[in-house]
Amino acid sequence: MTAFTHRFAPLALAAACGCASHSLPPRAFPDAARLPAQATLPDPLIKMDGHRIKSRSEWFRQRRPELKELFAYYMYGPIPPKPAQLKATVTGEHRDFLGGQATLRLITLEVAPHDPQAPRIDLMMILPNHRPGPVPVFLALNFWGNQAISSDPRIPLTRGWLRGNCRGCTNNVATDAARGTQSDDWPLAEIVSRGYALATFCNADLDADRPDASLGLYAWLAGNDPRRNTPSDRGTIAAWAWGFHRCVDYLVTDRDIDAKRIATLGHSRNGKTALLAAAFDERIAMAFPHQAGCGGTAPSRGKIGESVKAINTRFPHWFNARFKQFNDAPERLPFDQNALVALCAPRPVLFSAAEEDQWANPAGQFEVLQAADPVYRFLGSPGLAATEMPPPGKLIASPLGYYIRAGKHSMTAADWRVFLDFADQHFRRQPKLP
Ligand code: GCU
Predict the structure, then answer these.
(1) Number of domains in the chain
(2) Which residues sit with their C-beta closer than 6 Å to ligand 1?
């Protein structure tokens, strides 16, 4: 059923997206072996040529673009460019959701509507019905499809390939048994009663979470020619981040959404993605990388939990081929994850962790915030308002926020309460960007 179709005017494109291969980083950097070893987290305010950033404009015009190139070159691969077209089709609009408290809006986003291999994003929006005007939104990436978040049968089953541990899936495909399997962990009624919308989509819409690169965004961009789909120029996390950016393209046009209050959110691998997406796109006002760990919020140089070598071995597709050069030498990375957070400055970012989730290195995550703090302060933001890790259950709600709770690696309804408190705090006062 097509209730309404919105078509964007064709946008300027780096690569002719109907679609040629994505743009490469404009310059090459040295191999890992030729980079100096740095035992501590490199200072984001010092450029590759040793120059120390002295002004706001040097940060935004020189260092920020350089850091983006470095992350694309050595770690994530480039996030593909904005497509020429984004067609948004509302396939359902139900004002009786959550007992009439909310509207369920189902949207399909297509970048090449006539090409069956092109990625298609099923964006599920839940909007409070009582809203004084456009509302802030949590744009969240999910693991198992929109149907896992609510058992409402009107939500289409996700179409993508899902990893083996998906509840209610058969042969890696969602079935009706996969409906509502995560609904306890997504407190929808509470999110809307606090005045927020939720928009969510599944990572499998962009790229399957598996080493085989024959499916998904990069395969399509390469015209399904494996010779053009080169491992140094792709990474599944960057493909998922591209999905966040396309959802933002849509959300800024939705009159029910406040385009200045879009927050990205994700758990674990999806949290790594939520942070990367925010770092590279200033339309995203806030980021919630929950228990994101290695390759996200924990230092690559960290000695606790997952190492660069471990993540590259188990999930070789998440990062590009060059990142493997750092398996035994993370100290040669010319940046660490504090620089990814710094790319978000002065926008608020909350790192949330769990005591038993040592694999994601909660103490290292706090150090990452401490090492991003100088950039926030340089830009006039109060940064991180704590000099040591807080006790479990206490939210540090400064622009660089930190929270640790008892328990394991998971995203729960109680965690959402903390996200809502942090968002309340910062969406009242918007940081100014240049
Ligand atoms: C694994 C992986 C982590 C990742 C996590 C998840 O544990 O090692 O890096 O964050 O899966 O996404 O749940």
Answers:
(1) 2
(2) 268-269, 293-294, 306, 311, 314, 359
